[in-house]
Design goal:
The complex is a heterodimer of chains A (673) and B (305). Chain A is mainly α and 673 residues long. Chain A has 26 helices and five strands. Among the domains of chain A are: 270-512, no CATH class; 631-672, no CATH class. Classes of the chains: A mainly alpha (673), B mainly alpha (305).
């Protein structure tokens, strides 16, 4: 049997059975190990099949119909190159999260709230990626959302988590509603719910296409975390247990990106150029705002969640470029931009999972997520700090790691855009490029802060003194991801070639084959124009560092003395005198925050002779929440209060109401037809 | 690759000498930086009690990343053997790596100075790096490549002409170079006053061979930026592949001449201007960013005219 979509569905079924099994077993002490072991095995199996399909049989498309779901439709599933790529992302993340969970799950106080939903969540994500009709897609999407919601409120006794769960639920329902309407429009009056028919039918009218684009941005964008629909993300992702946070940030946002790509590039027909404008503007705003929020944050997991928003922005900018090129019939620039987007999605799933695992390790070792109470962990947790550092370097887009390779491709795509004929794009694309460059620099600042405050310096609380290195399973999972970050960074050619069937199927163009390039460098266009060789950069840095070390240790003095740090004549400075996360971000807050957060600092100096301490108060506003969500909740509250009166009418009035609405509806029907 | 190593301390020594002469001081000898490096290497290292492994590894990493970046910039000849390894964007990112680790090292010991230096450094970098990338965009759009050898070859050809965007890019690049190398008016390489230092505050805890590595890296960085400006905006005298040895000799002499001019200009500029307050620096760099963006925008828009 050729492994294809059937084998994958068996795997998903196994995940579902595991979920049911977990319900029955979860009170037992052995359940944690057993469930995560099973999910690890199943995800490994699914990953193997997806990789096999993507690498060896990239052009094969297998599909199947199961007799479940709506009676006259059934549930359609299909596996093509795009699905296979996202299945790789989902199951790689799933497998490593399970491995991490083997160790991390032991610290779980309420395993019966986590174990049943974890396999279900994985199954939901797999199903979304394989779904081939609107009904199955939406059902799986909702299943994925609800399973993750259950995981978000796993620790429901903390008030912040229930609030996060509530906002997540509202935003997820809103997103699904938008998707439902989008698919309704795509299906048209004839009700062609299968993607097969949508793909084959003639492209919809421009107005319909616009509405579908907007609805997709609302639906998939709210799940992915596009500004201004991101508000639930920094609340919900950190609330879940850390390996689930890694899945939500690293993988579920990618499933949302998959939904967007599937509809925009596959189902909707050829794009118009201004649709790319909307995507570019939203993407670049998301990138810069996301990372500015992250810089202001002092909760480690929330910082990571905000940085997810930033990465989603980068992916969407790249997708917008792909749309712009495709709208103008420029095949291979579009392929370059789409490859860059997919590559960055893969990379982000690597390093964001790694960073969330690291944050989870810190959390389980110290019980703290607040960076202001951490510090000096590099001495207590050397391995964790090393792999976390790898993650920080990778996410900051520094060579030779993977984040740089994908951002480099995006910059190359931007440099191709002066050839676009539209003036709007000519002005917009360099601005978007500038925003990307700005966000890339801010990311580095943000992760200097994240690593520096958490792992370096001196301990800021006693919790750190009790910290110790985490278990081997967690460390293995993190080390595997760190190795993947380096591998994808020094051998990007293999990943790009692996992605070429995806772009070939969606755009009809592909990037030139990279593996055949000498020295495994990547050359998107022509060698004289631009090339990058992560492997050689890595080798060069290693060689020159080795030369430096050799020369120094051969010729320089070996003496070493430990002494107290220089404190300007004040010995034994308390750890509170160190820079904190907030003070580290102060210069950037002053430069960017006055505009983006209406940040204000007030210093209260005491009069001479008074010995009470001076005070510095910092005031920041979440502008988007205040400008968009507060009014909406205000109106809703007003409307519900007014409508509440309808609950207390007499029976005559209710009857009148029913009668009136019936007449109105009949009138509408009569006038319409 | 080894040429840059030899020349870098000399350039810094020359700039220091020029600055001293402009202030009518005698000034140290031009080979003083070499002596400083040797002296530092012979001294013992004093590590703070709670310094971690990262603190000890960082100097070598910074040195290696800066050296690789400097070796990838064409100095007096185009067509370096490995120039296709990394383009201008990658060089910018390599310097970014060096700064990333330096900022981390500043926070390792957990003193106020390290923190102040790191947090200001990342603030400066958060504006200087995008400006630098946008300059790279302008150059790439003019020359049709981000590969430095190609850019330099294009600049030597007659196809360039005088362009507004290039002028803007040049000004922006000079401003970025001043900020990146911690020169006046952004930072003062000679200061040891706590409130004003940025780069010096981060490396305050370093001593001995570690400090030598970091100092060497900053010498290299100065040379890198000067070579970059020289190779892109003053490409005359660059030797192309396949020329005879005499051409290489001429190229080398021209290159040293360019460095001398650059050094004199830098010293003159630094003497003539006062250091800025830290929170005026964003204005300075914001101007560089806007100039670079304007240059890029002009190129995008003018492509179809």
């Amino acid at each position: 049997m050729i492994p294809g979509v059937e084998a994958l569905l068996w795997g998903v079924a196994a995940l579902m059975i595991t979920a049911v099994l977990a319900v029955t077993l979860s009170r037992r002490s052995t359940a944690t190990g057993l469930i995560y072991l099973i999910t690890l095995a199943v995800c490994g199996f699914l990953l193997g099949i997806a990789l096999w399909c993507l690498v060896l049989r990239p052009t094969d498309v297998t599909s199947t119909t199961l007799p479940v779901g709506l009676p006259w439709i059934g549930a359609h599933f299909r596996l093509d190159a795009l699905s296979a790529f996202f299945l790789v992302v989902v199951n790689l993340g799933g497998a490593l999260s399970s491995l991490y969970g083997l160790g991390y799950g032991r610290h779980e106080s309420a395993p019966h709230r986590v174990l049943p939903f974890f396999p279900a969540f994985l199954a939901g994500m797999n199903l979304v990626v394989m779904a081939d009709d609107a009904f199955t897609f939406l059902l799986s999407w909702e299943f994925m959302s609800l399973a993750s919601w259950a995981l978000v409120i796993a620790h429901h006794r903390e008030p912040a988590n229930t609030r996060a769960g509530y906002i997540y639920l509202v935003m997820a329902s809103f997103g699904t509603l938008a998707l439902l309407l989008a698919f309704g429009l795509l299906a048209g009056p004839a009700g062609n719910y299968t993607f097969e028919v949508m793909r084959a039918s003639s492209p919809p009218a421009p107005l319909i296409a616009t509405i579908v684009l907007i609805l997709m941005l609302l639906g998939a964008g709210s799940k992915a975390g596009l500004v201004p629909l991101h508000v639930w993300l920094p609340l919900a992702h950190p609330a879940a247990p850390s390996h689930v946070s890694a899945l939500m940030s690293g993988v579920m946002t990618k499933v949302a990106v998959y939904g967007f790509i599937r509809v925009l590039f596959d189902l909707l027909g050829p794009p118009t150029w201004w649709s790319s404008v909307v995507v570019l503007v939203l993407g670049s705003a998301t990138a810069v705002l996301g990372i500015l929020y992250a810089l202001m944050e002092s909760d480690l997991k929330r910082l990571l969640a905000y940085s997810t928003i930033e990465n989603i922005g980068i992916i969407f900018v790249s997708l917008g470029l792909a749309l712009a090129f495709q709208a103008n019939g420029m095949g291979w620039p579009a392929a370059l931009a789409l490859t860059a987007a997919l590559f960055h999605a893969l990379n982000h799933s690597f390093f964001k999972s790694l960073l969330f695992f690291g944050a989870g390790a810190v959390l389980s070792a110290t019980g703290e997520r607040n960076m202001e109470k951490l510090g000096g962990l590099i001495h207590r947790m050397p391995v964790t700090s090393f792999v976390f550092l790898v993650g920080c370097v990778a996410i900051s887009a520094l060579p030779p790691f993977n984040g740089f390779a994908s951002e480099w491709l995006i910059f190359q795509a931007i440099l191709l855009s002066p050839d676009l004929p539209q003036w709007g794009l000519k002005v917009l694309v360099p601005a978007a490029g500038g925003m990307l460059a700005l966000s890339a620099a801010l990311v580095a600042a943000c992760f200097v802060k994240a690593f520096g405050i958490t792992f370096l310096g001196r301990p800021r609380s006693e919790a750190v003194d009790r910290a110790h290195e985490v278990d081997r399973y967690s460390l293995t999972a993190m080390a595997a991801l760190a190795a993947l970050c380096l591998l994808a960074g020094i051998l990007p050619g293999f990943v790009i070639d692996g992605l070429s069937p995806v772009t070939q199927a969606l755009i009809g163009g592909r990037m030139p084959t990279q593996i055949s390039q000498p020295w495994l460098s990547i050359v998107p266009i022509a060698e004289s124009r631009s090339s990058y060789n992560g492997l050689l950069v890595f080798v060069f840095i290693t060689i020159s560092a080795s030369i430096a070390v050799y020369v120094i240790h051969r010729f320089a003095s070996h003496e070493l003395r430990r002494g107290p740090a220089w404190g300007c004549g004040f010995p034994d400075m308390p750890p509170d005198a160190q820079y904190t996360a907030t003070s580290f971000a102060q210069p950037i807050r002053r430069v960017f925050g006055t505009f983006a957060f209406r940040a204000k600092e007030t210093v209260k100096m005491t009069p001479p002779g008074d010995i009470s301490p001076a005070r510095l108060d910092v005031e920041t506003h979440d502008v988007i929440w205040e400008a968009l969500y507060d009014p909406i909740t205000g109106w809703l509250e007003y409307a519900t209060l007014k409508l509440n009166r309808l609950q207390f009418l007499t029976i005559r009035r209710y009857l009148t109401l029913v009668f009136g609405s019936l007449v109105t509806l009949l009138l509408v029907v009569a006038l319409w037809l | 690759m080894f040429l840059v190593l030899l020349l870098a301390p000399l350039l810094t020594g020359f700039v220091r000498k020029m600055k001293a002469r402009l202030l009518r001081r005698q000034g140290p000898s031009m080979v003083q930086p070499y002596r400083d490096l040797l002296r530092l290497m012979r001294k013992e290292v004093v590590l703070a009690d709670n310094a971690s492994w990262l603190f000890r590894v960082t100097p070598y990493l910074i040195f290696a990343a800066t050296w690789v970046a400097a070796a990838l910039v064409p100095t007096f000849a185009t067509g370096l053997t490995f120039s296709w390894t990394a383009d201008l964007i990658a060089i910018v990112a390599l310097l970014g790596s060096a700064r990333f680790f330096l900022a981390l090292a500043g926070m390792d010991v957990g003193t106020g100075f390290g923190g102040i230096g790191s947090s200001r450094e990342v603030m400066i970098a958060s504006l200087a790096e995008p400006a630098m990338l946008l300059i790279a965009f302008s150059l790439a759009l003019v020359a049709g490549a981000t590969q430095l050898s190609t850019v330099a070859a294009f600049m030597t050809s007659s196809a360039v002409g005088l362009r507004v965007s290039l002028g803007m890019a040049l000004i922006a690049l000079v401003m970025v170079a001043i900020a990146e190398n911690a020169r006046i008016p952004v930072d003062n390489p000679a200061t040891h006053l706590e409130l004003t230092m940025v780069h010096e505050a981060m490396v305050l805890e370093y001593s001995g061979r570690h400090l030598a590595m970091i100092e060497f890296a900053s010498f290299l960085k100065l040379l890198l930026y000067m070579s970059l400006i020289a190779c892109v905006f003053l490409p005359w005298g660059l030797v192309t592949v396949g020329s005879g040895p005499e051409a290489y000799a001429v190229g080398l002499v021209t290159y040293v001449g360019k460095l001398l001019i650059g050094g004199v200009l830098l010293a003159f500029f630094e003497t003539a201007i006062a250091k800025m307050r830290v929170f005026r620096v964003p204005d300075f760099l914001g101007a560089a960013l806007m100039l670079a963006l304007l240059g890029t925008l002009l190129l995008f828009v003018s492509r179809s005219l």
